[in-house]
Write a structure and sequence with these properties.
Elements lengths: L2 E3 L15 E5 L4 H12 L3 E6 L2 H13 L6 E4 L7 H14 L5 E4 L15 H27 L4 E6 L12 H21 L5 E7 L6 H6 L15 H8 L10 E3 L2
Parallel strand pairs: 1-8, 2-3, 2-5, 3-4, 5-6, 6-7, 7-8
Bound molecules: NADP nicotinamide-adenine-dinucleotide phosphate.
């Protein structure tokens, strides 16, 4: 596994993502929301995908009122997404934008935190569906649009427990190992045949609802906010990372 720290002292130019169209999953909250707002502030047209329309609309309004490029909202529940819905999404994006320059797989669910011996199959399946299967479906059907870009970036979201398993992290940890594996497979397939680079980011402990659910006794202020870890997200989405592929970055 090729693990690297976030590039030190990286400073994105204000127009780094000018003219780029980037889809962010889980864009209504937490790290995905910060990424969507940050990409838009650097000139990208952002497609905000998530399951809670009111949260996506709030991000849309924030981007629009800041005067950034007009985003788009896609309400999609990744726990039940079908191949037909992904095909429909790809067709809609092809009609409207013609290509995709960036895809940030960020949406995930934590699932149950308990020993394998008492884990439930329903919770296991939901985690694998949202964190792994939906990533496959979206990637599979958005690849032609990414191939239409002169320089595209696919970024997966990993975790420390996706590199070393830990007791009671169950399906979530296994799904993040799968995410690291999917990134490596896809990167290796595309490395010499396309303009698409494929990498992972492990955000590290970050102050979001998911972190608070995993560590309810921890003071939220112990960890950086999503806005404070955006450097490596910008680096990977912009062309400063051209040629970088197959790497799992630590945001912190
Ligand atoms: N925060 C950390 O410390 C940390 C550490 C390591 C890795 N990560 C990873 O970083 C990523 C972002 O995490 P976060 O902390 O920002 O989590 P979060 O605050 O819980 O946000 C997750 C986002 O994913 C969306 N989502 C969940 N299930 C979905 C579904 N079925 N369909 C569509 N969207 C769905 C959520 O939508 P709603 O807003 O509608 O619920 C939310 O917008 C995840 O991949 C997570 O595993 C986080």
């Amino acid at each position: 596994m090729n693990i690297q720290p976030a590039p030190a002292h990286y400073r994105a130019t204000a127009d780094l993502l000018h003219d780029k169209t980037i889809l962010v999953t889980g864009a209504g909250d937490g790290i995905g929301k910060a990424a969507a707002l940050t990409f838009a502030a650097h000139g990208a047209t952002v497609i905000l995908l998530g399951r809670t329309e009111s949260k996506l609309d709030a991000v849309y309004d924030e981007i629009e009122s800041a005067g950034h490029p007009k985003p788009a909202v896609v309400v999609m529940d990744l726990a039940s997404v079908t191949e037909e819905q992904c095909l429909h999404l790809a067709q809609g994006l092809a009609d409207e934008f013609g290509r995709l320059d960036g895809l940030l797989h960020n949406a995930s669910v934590l699932g149950e935190r308990r020993p394998v011996e008492s884990a439930t199959y329903a919770a296991w399946q939901e985690v694998m569906q949202v964190n792994v299967n939906a990533q496959f479906l979206l990637t599979r059907h958005l690849l032609p649009l990414l191939q239409a870009s002169p320089s595209a970036s696919v970024v997966f979201t990993s975790s420390g427990v996706g590199r070393a398993g830990r007791a009671f992290w169950g399906a979530y940890a296994v799904s993040k190992f799968a995410t690291e594996g999917f990134m490596q497979v896809l990167s290796s397939e595309l490395e010499n045949t396309s303009n698409i680079r494929v990498n992972c980011i492990n955000p590290g402990a970050t102050n979001t609802s998911m972190r608070n659910a995993a560590y309810p006794a921890e003071p939220p202020t112990n960890n950086p906010s999503p806005n404070e870890i955006m450097g490596v997200y910008l680096y990977l989405m912009g062309d400063d990372s051209a040629g970088v592929t197959g790497v799992s970055f630590d945001a912190q």
